Structures are given as structure tokens and as C-alpha cells.
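User: Some background: our group keeps a shared notebook of sequences we're curious about, and every so often someone picks one and asks for a predicted structure to add to the entry. Today it's my turn. The entry only has the sequence so far, pasted here. Could you supply the structure so I can complete it?
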Amino acid sequence: MTVRNPTPPTSDDDWWRSAAIYQVYLRSFADANGDGIGDLAGLRQRLPYLRDLGVEALWLTPFYPSPMIDGGYDVADYRDVDPMFGTLTEFDEVIVDAHALGLRIIVDLVPNHTSSAHPWFQAALAAAPGSPERARYHFTAGRGAAGELPPNDWESIFGGPAWTRLPDGQWYLHLFDSAQPDLNWRNPKVRAEFEDVLRFWLDRGVDGFRIDVAHGMIKAEGLPDVGFGRQTGQRQVELLGKSRLPYFDQDEVHDIYRAWRPILDSYPGGRMAVAEAWAETPQRLARYIGPDELHQAFSFDFLDAHWSADSFRKVIDTALAESAVINAPTTWVLSNHDKQRHVTRYGDGPAGLRRARAAALLMFALPGCAYLYQGEELGLPEVLDLPDDLRQDPQYLRTGQSRDGCRVPIPWSGELAPYGFSPDGSAPSWLPAPATWRDLSVAAQIGAPESTLELYRTALRIRRAHPALSTAAAQIVWEETRPGVLAFTRTAGGTALTCVVNISDAPAVSTGYGDPLVASAPLTREGTGYLISVDAAAWFERR
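Assistant: Of course. Here's the predicted structure to add to the notebook entry:
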């Protein structure tokens, strides 16, 4: 293997403490070959757009060989690229070009489960009960007189039981789809395999990993029942982040990350890992982060915050307090590939867009690392009316709930769908974009001063350059405001930047914070201050 440019774009080992990181849902980002599906070549063509947007790194969703039962989170080969997306050579070219543009690349790692098409699982199916091949997964006998009942009461996150029975009578565990069998991380061969996978991609120059289901690899000894919800009919998934489950957030999972950290640290340039983890308390979530484990863990509380000043204030204070204890950066995120887009969560339509723009300025002003989901810089809403026969989310088939609405391909240009996502005359995009997206395309917004895209570009440029924002230091000072208005100040080098967010039901006047730098809605002078409209935010600077 020859890696043309494995070195990171700068030598700043702490870049991840304050970076803006852009999530690329590769299948829906840009299609270069005209098959209606995004690919690595399409991403490579659009890298200058992402540099100009002002982000420092890209997180790529899975591109590995996969049957695509769960959008690539069912991996059949951890050391290759699915032909749908391109080749390993094209991946290397993305790394080279991204680094040349000052962009880092984070790849998704899916260690909790493989695809049922993975050679290991195929070997397990062909082997006998009790064999070494089956020991790499969770195979066990069922309950009942003839083993006809599942081994325990565990439920799939996608709905239904977390167990499937084979013709030979044994059951295998899958916390997600039945095509995603869970690996047995108590098996040393599993641990050795993924340590090698880490090195494979680090050798190719990746700058970090997003760890899918980072809290799930270790299951409690004996696979005990959860024992919840039988009388109430409540699903176990409703306990995520609220209660301890025998298949999530077990103490031994930290042994895995303590073995991974020296591998990451052995490479130059600040290679990092961020956990997608759920834990019942902020204290338990914080255990995933530290100098001997992972660098970050997503804080989903910010994403789940209601559109209210009290809700945001509580989430921010809690996150900053916890990060201070462990000397780690906070992570902020408003949307991702698993959640309804925040324009729609905040009310949809004009009100939802106003709030989403204000929330972006709030997020970018906070200390720590900000994660953007592709398309949020365009103000894209959730697509709620996709035809049922086009939906591909396995969760939809089990529960009727679908994540496809946030995965519709990005509109780049033009008057008609797919809006430049694919070359002219190409196949239709794998999910159709609505007619209302014509005015939300990149081409329609770029250079338009009041557009959401230009708001993001301006805010990210200031965030990267301003002394009060370009540091991960968690010090903020809350300002006295009337109910429904949030205002905090960050100071560095004799310059103060104040972020004001009006979540009340009436315009708010900001006074004494200095001159405006950027605002999510037009400001008007009001005496010695500025009038901030409802559902709007602004940054002010004073020296």
C-alpha cells in the first residue's frame, strides 16, 4: 500500500478541542458518476465548498462494503470501499486533497456489530454451536422447553426482539437489525481485529474516528433480562440515556478505549476519536473522555434541548461544568443523520428557520467543538412526505418511524430536482428532493447576504479568527437579561464577544455589548443599543 500524503494539514495536536466539524452523509452529499447516489468522487469535487464554508474537518459516514441494510452501518469489510462509493485509491485522493485544503478527515467506525454478510458471520453460520467462529458473536440457546423462546427480554433499537433463531436452534444477538449481528467484545480476537483496523485507516492518513454505538460493545455477564416495560408496554429504547441497561454502558467498555488511545497517540498530528455514547448520567458519559481514553463524546442534550432559554441554559451550564472537571472540550450538535432536522424540530416553516439560524449562532459562540450536519448551512427542513415505497431506513419497516427525511440529497443548483446533486441526464437521486428546495440550493444562496449559507460562512469565519472564540477555553460569563433572553460573553486578549439570543415573545434591546459582528436577522438601532427581533441572535464585540 502506498499512501501519498498521510500527514495532517497542520501540526496542531489540539485542533479537535475547538474545531467546526461537518458531517458528510456520503450517499446524499454529491454524486459524480450519475447513478443517483453520492460518492467519494463527488465529495472530492466539492471539497473547496467545504473549505470556503469555514469548517476544519469532515466526518464521513460509512463507505465500507455493505449490503446497505442500514445505510452502511452494516459493514461487510472494514478495510475497503464499497463500489457504490468508489475505490480505496479514490479515498486516498480525498485525503490528499482535503489535507491540501486544510481539512481533516474523520471516518465512522462501527465496532458494535458487523453485517450478516461479513465473512466472520458467514463462517459462524456454517460452524457448529460452541465453535470458535460463533464465539466472535453472541450465540446462545433459547429459553422454554425446546429453546423456542429468546434467551432474554432484550429489544432491538429498531423494534421487536433483539434475537433471531437459526435452524439449528441457537439464537444470535442483534441490538439493531437482524442483518447486524453484535460482536462479542469479550473475545480477544475481536479486540485484536479492530486494533488492526484502526491502524489500517490511520496509516492511510485519517485524522480521527467517530465511534458508532461506543457504549454498546460489552454486554453484562450472563445476559440478564432488562425486566422493564412488560406491564406498561414501554419500549426499552426509551431508557437510552436514562437508565442502566445490561447491553449498554458496561464498565468494561472502557478497557477497550484504554487500549485504543496509545494507538491513536502513536501517530502524529493529533489523531482523535469521538464517541457516540448514551449514559444515564453526565458523570458516566464523562468517563469515556480523558487522556487515557477517547477525546470527545457527543453531548446530545444540546440537540434535545427545547426552544426555550431555560432549556438551553441548563444544558449549557451542565455540559461546561462536566467538561471542566475532566479538562475536555464540550461538543455541540443541532442535527445529524439519525435525528429530525432542527428547522423542523423548532417549528418548521419560517419560524423554524428563524430559530435554526439563531441556534447556529448560539452553538458557534460556545466554547468547544461544533458539529454540523450537511445541509443545515442551507436551512434545509426535514422532508416529511417521502413516498413510503422509497423509504429505506430499516427502522421504518419495524416501527413506522423513519430517518430518511433528514437524508435527502443536498441541492446544489438548478431549477429542478435533483438540483445538481448528480450530473445532467443522470439517474434520479436515491431519495427525491422536494420542489420547495429550489430556493435553498447552494447556487441560490451563495453570495446572497441574507441567506442561511452566508450566515454560516460569516459566523464560521469569525469563529475561526476571533480571539475570544478561537479557543476551547470553557470560560463564559452570563449577562443579566430579562426572561427569555440568553446572553453570555467570552473574552480574550482584551476583546470581548457577547452572544445574545432572543427566545422570548417580544423584541429585546441589547445595550453595552459593543458593535454587532453578525446577526441571524436584521438589527435596528434602539437608543444606544440594538433591537433584536424574536427568535433571533447576534454577536457583539467590544474592546
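Suggested note for the entry: Residues 152 and 224 are 7 Å apart (CA to CA). The longest helix spans residues 309-326.
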